[in-house]
Amino acid sequence: MIKKLITISLTLLAFTGWNSATAQDTIKMGALATLEGAFAVLGEDGMRGVKMALEEFGYEAGGKKIELITGSSDASPDSALRAARKLVEQDGVPILVGPLSGSEGLALKDYAKTQPNVTFVNGVSAAQDTTLREPADNFFRFTTDGAQWMAGLGEYAYNEKGYRKLAVLAEDYSFPYTQVFGFLEPFCRLGGQAPLDARFWVPIGNKDFSSVIAALPDDVDAIYVALGGADAINFLTQYGQAGGELPLIGGSITVDQTVLGSRGRIREHVVGMPSAGPISDTWDDPLWQAFTDQYRKQFPDGFPSPSLFAHGYYISTKATLLALDKVNGDVSDGGKAMRTALSSLTFETPTGTVSLDERRQAIADIFLTEVTVDDNDNLVNKTINVTGQVSQTFGLPYQDFLQYGPVSRENPRCE
Amino acid sequence: MMKGQHSIFGHFFTNDSPSLWIVAAVLLIYPAISSDFFTFQIGAYSLILGTISLSLMMLAGYGGMVSLAQLTVAGLAGYLMAIFGENSVGVMGFGWPWWITSIWAILLAALFSAFIGTISVRTEGIYTIMITLAIAVAFYFFVRQNYVLFNGWTGYAGIEPPTILGIYWRNPIPFYYLSLVVAAFCYWAVVYCSRSTFGLALQAIRDNPRRMQSLGYNIVLHRVIAYFLSGFIAATAGVLLVWFNGRISPGSVSVGVIIDILVIAVLGGLRHPIGPFIGAIVFVLLENFAIDLIDRERFNTVIGLVFLLIVLYSPDGLLGLWKKLWTRLIDSRKIRPNEIGNELRTKSADSIETS
Amino acid sequence: MQRFLNKHPTRAVFVLLAIASLAWLIFSVWPEWLIDLIGRKKTFVNTLINGLTLGGLYFLVASGFTLIFGLMRNVNLAHGTMYLLGAYIGYEVAEFSNNWYLGLIAAFIAVGLCGMLMQLLVFRRMEGDDLRQTLVTIAISIIAADLMLAVWTGTTYQFTPPEWLFGSVTLPIVSAIKSSGEVVYLKYPLFRLMVMLLAILVGVVLWLFLNKSRIGMMIRAGVNDRDMLSASGVNIQLIFMLVFAIGAGLAGLAGVVGGTALSIAPGEDIRYLLASLVVVIVGGLGSITGAAIGAVIIGLAEQFGLAYLPTYGVVITFLIMVMVLAIRPKGIMGK
Lengths: 415, 355, 335
Fold this sequence. Notes:
The complex is a heterotrimer of chains A (415), B (355) and C (335).
Chain A: H1 2-16, E1 26-34, H2 40-56, E2 60-61, E3 64-73, H3 77-90, E4 95-97, H4 102-114, E5 119-121, E6 139-140, H5 153-160, E7 166-171, H6 174-189, E8 199-202, H7 210-215, E9 222-226, H8 229-241, E10 248-250, H9 257-260, H10 267-270, E11 274-277, H11 286-298, H12 308-326, H13 336-343, E12 346-349, E13 352-356, E14 362-373, E15 379-390, H14 398-402
Parallel strand pairs in A: 1-3, 1-4, 4-5, 5-6, 7-8, 7-9, 9-10
Antiparallel strand pairs in A: 2-3, 11-14, 12-13, 13-14, 14-15
Helix pairs in contact in A: 2-12, 3-4, 5-6, 12-13
Chain B: H1 2-13, H2 18-33, H3 36-63, H4 70-84, H5 98-120, H6 126-145, E1 156-157, E2 163-164, E3 167-168, H7 172-195, H8 197-207, H9 209-214, H10 219-245, E4 247-248, H11 255-268, H12 275-293, H13 299-313, H14 317-332, H15 337-354
Antiparallel strand pairs in B: 1-4, 2-3
Helix pairs in contact in B: 1-15, 3-7, 3-10, 3-11, 3-12, 4-5, 4-10, 5-10, 7-8, 7-10, 8-10, 11-12, 11-14
Chain C: H1 2-7, H2 9-27, H3 32-38, H4 41-72, H5 79-97, H6 100-123, H7 130-152, E1 168-177, E2 183-189, H8 190-212, H9 214-224, H10 226-231, H11 236-261, H12 268-283, H13 288-308, H14 313-327
Antiparallel strand pairs in C: 1-2
Helix pairs in contact in C: 4-8, 4-11, 4-12, 4-13, 5-6, 5-7, 5-11, 5-12, 6-11, 8-9, 9-11, 12-13, 12-14, 13-14
């Protein structure tokens, strides 16, 4: 028995003595994405973006080697927090890129406040409050949030399509709230309507939309749909099957590659569906072309075209490496100089210029797109318009923007 | 059978044997010899998960009721901390002082556990598992959809332990000792309870409810009280868990985590209160370091396989495995007289178990 | 019928009234005040049929679950895994052979074989030990879910049903009368109606098999007294394997049907396991009739919840379950 206890304590000791010293000429960089669970496919694509940026820099920045340490979550904030703690407190990374989903981002922002000497660069998490309300000084987001992603779509629906009254169908959690807010705010400001009783909030993971479809009103001009992944596929199929005839408008992940590339029969119902988001599959800018070519070359087993997850993680990692270059890889001051460099960083990405506002939130270009069939008979999003340099507050002063209040099922009321 | 059990394990873990003191000493000096990360995220977290699993072990081991709603009770206590105490989300948050909040949260959650008990005690065995699982999932869906009380999908953040005596109790070392004290207390309470009249009656009810009923025992009442007590333990750990994470959301009470608690308890062994803690340490180490050893993507396969092997080959968990090895070790040496007794008692315990 | 009328005259009147008003709700043209009260008729009737068809799907999954439990008293918590596996296998076969029916049959057979294997390798080894069986099936479902994720990734799959099953049919139910006087009839997806028909068919065949066939009689005898049956010279292990194969096969079959009516993605295993659990708990474990009743109740509750009370729709089903348990701990048809 005593032997057993000695073994146990020796094992514990062995584990506890693990904090190995960091070599002077390498910098550890943590990258956190959802590598397990149902969202693993998305997290993997995010990691591809990280590796692309590192490859581009030859795994070196500011004269130092970069050592990548990956962390994994299952898309729940608790698991993201545990993985981040492990990376920061056990592996001792001074820089952490991630996470992927909105609620994870909020959790990491809170955690960032307790680790002032570590620099956090967001992956692609897109919750508004991560940087809008009570931001953390050491949390940087070079990607845009869910409301920014909708830039230009509300105006397009009102002015170009001539819609005046809409129904809304969205999943019942914070990300779709943010998207609905970003879409409806300009649409309603112009005079459009989206009555509260025509907004349908379905639980995430709902597969059977037939009753919701039956409950959708007839007296509207179009339906704004903010569903993601399997939910979007199910709705689009069932809407077609039920003989639905109203035009649809999509949220950023309603008609992205994960939905368009699914094995099924959504094809006939989605062509022509407008949407908006941080990337566009057919953007003809040479930088974007080079980016997609490199993606396909480096990852033959990836998606046909980089998803917004690969794109977002790529931009975030690249920003980190650029800042490290600027300070010659010196993070010995607890990363202070590097964070100053990050704050003032402005750089060209495959999707236009990106810079940060005073709350360290990206100002970037947003694409207005429409689903179309390309030459290879694949469904892709075609660029219709680019809204340049969209800020988080839609150009309003910060205090004025706060007047809108937090996103919710009833914001904006739009009556 | 429990009696035999106690003579062998009780000897090592609960009596004044040197091994107990060594375990206690290791646990006490652990923070001094380990990094903050190991103190907090491995040490304290294992203790908290172990305590929640302990509440399951108590119900399953002594009461024969495998409840999958223990994490739900812990989660409810966490939510109540956010609702009655302080949070940074701007929903609810009555700002009661921490000690009223925690007592109130633990009490309400324990009552909730008793309520789960009243619903499920009328059922037995497999029904209990299914019904508690269904209640747990219903709770998950409810908190996910309800914004008024539980703030829906987003849940609560900014739930802080208090600063008392000038110590901020979230700091790794104080928090570790806090978890250790709670875990030790719960452990002691379970051991004590198992030997009390109530505990013995509960075990007898588990083994033969009909006989106990005819002897005049109120079976339902005993079981509901067991649910209440185990809920009390789970809720106490739940308060620590919400302080540990600083936040709570529907993801914290989802099916995956519910199954994790069951895995921990079974991994360690459902026969003795030390089992859940052993299971928790193994689980937490795997969870944190599997990514360095194997591909994290297949973490679930690894944990599932470990779980499967344990269930198939050592129904009493790692503890049972250890017991077997230990017995074999003694067999191979010369058996000393004082151990023959233990040996025989273990054997007889096993034979009763399987019958 | 006559006896029921004589015994409970008031109850009979209530039942008749309920049937009559339901028929009126379905076939009449709704007056304005009713539309003001509970919304459009189209929504109501559609939701009603949706609930019934979803109940059909739930019955397909849950009947296998309840069949296995009824005879062997073991709860196969990997039942949802069987559903998902059947769907994936069926998809591969249907894609490869370009034949949906072949996918359906392949799923039934392949998953049926898996079920037999599980009975042979796992359940037989730990007969009578409920808890261990449950834990083993949980372990299997954890591993299987992860491996299926590795093979089929997180992508969503949908089957392409045969041409004649796709699209909608017009039902002889008036949905509304336009201001021009034109009568609008209700349209409904044909495949979903077929799901309900298939469920009824499977239910009837199961009932006949259990009540009229020789093997069925043995199975029922085994439910009542297993030891007596094996003592009378029946190879009970063989019967166990057969029942396990049918139960698991039905889950696999349901996977293809569900993947055609809805879709297939990781996480569906837990979803349908929970659905089966609730259905059989409400209906009563081990009873085919109970599974049918439970499936209809849960299907209706889910759809009406979604249409009329979307926020708490998902909670309703579980509340129904708790209520049923409070009144009848062994479910509606449980013994």
